[in-house]
Amino acid sequence: MARDELARIVDHTLLLPQTTAAQASAFVAEAQRLGVGAVCLSPSLLPVSADGLRVVAVCGFPAGTHHTEIKRAEAARSVADGADEVDMVINLGLVAAGDWSGVEADIAAVRSAVPAPHLLKVIIESALLTDEQIVGSCRAAESAGADFVKTSTGFNPAGGASVHAVELMARTVGGRLGVKASGGIRTAAAVQAMIDAGATRLGLSGTAAILAELDGATAAVPSGSDQY
């Protein structure tokens, strides 16, 4: 994939909890210079001026244990504050219990607050899940009307995206939903592996370094990029 084509499927991501409004603005400006498709931020940092970019806000982040009505309200506020897309974390306790109707209801409630053409991505924290749970989570997301399934928050000690998880997610949704790989993707080789596995969107914080690698140049990895 050519450098500019790759950049357009990147959600340039800054989710460190200590991020200031000034840092968020500088990050958006960097995203614009890099030519990425979107910038992903915490909802409290919205609204932002982001001409030419989609704005993504996370929801129920990073644990997914918020009450459903809180997630729904948070998503609605993000949309009101200018978010084009919302990346929500599922309730992993419901997944562990095999309560798929509960998982679907949680997602559907957030979907109701994120109407089309806004996009809803569902973070399943794939490194924590068995293959059967990954498949079940993807099916629940599809049944609830999500637009994407997403591997990871990047904040769970279990790990981030893996080629195996992306392949399984892509196979489960069969092109009906997009697949976003995120968490621990720090090199151009890792990016290519995720795309080959079926990822259609990428969540990256070390975007500048990866794009520079594709350009045959070098760039310092931004501070905190190993967090996502």
Walk me through the structure.
One of its GO terms (molecular function) is deoxyribose-phosphate aldolase activity. This protein is α/β, with parallel strands linked by helices and 228 residues long. It has a single domain, classed as TIM Barrel (Alpha-Beta Barrel). It has 9 helices and 8 strands. It has helices at 3-7, 21-34, 68-80, 92-97, 100-113, 131-143, 163-173, 188-197, 207-214, and strands at residues 10-14, 38-41, 54-59, 85-89, 119-123, 148-150, 178-182, 201-204. It has an 8-stranded parallel barrel, surrounded by 6 helices. β3 (54-59), α3 and β4 (85-89) form a beta-alpha-beta unit. Mean pLDDT is 95; it is low at 218-226.
User: How is the CATH topology named?
Assistant: TIM Barrel
Please tally the helical runs, counting DSSP H or I stretches of 4 or more residues.
9
Overall radius of gyration: 16 Å
* CATH H-level superfamily: Aldolase class I
Q: Write down the CATH class.
A: Alpha Beta
Structural class call reads alpha/beta
DSSP E strands, number: 8
Kindly state the percentage of residues in helix: 40-55%
Active site: 87, 150, 180
Keywords: Cytoplasm, Lyase, Schiff base
EC number: 4.1.2.4
Family: Belongs to the DeoC/FbaB aldolase family. DeoC type 1 subfamily.
Features:
disordered C terminus, 228 residues, single chain, 9 helices, alpha/beta, eight-stranded parallel barrel, 8 strands, TIM Barrel
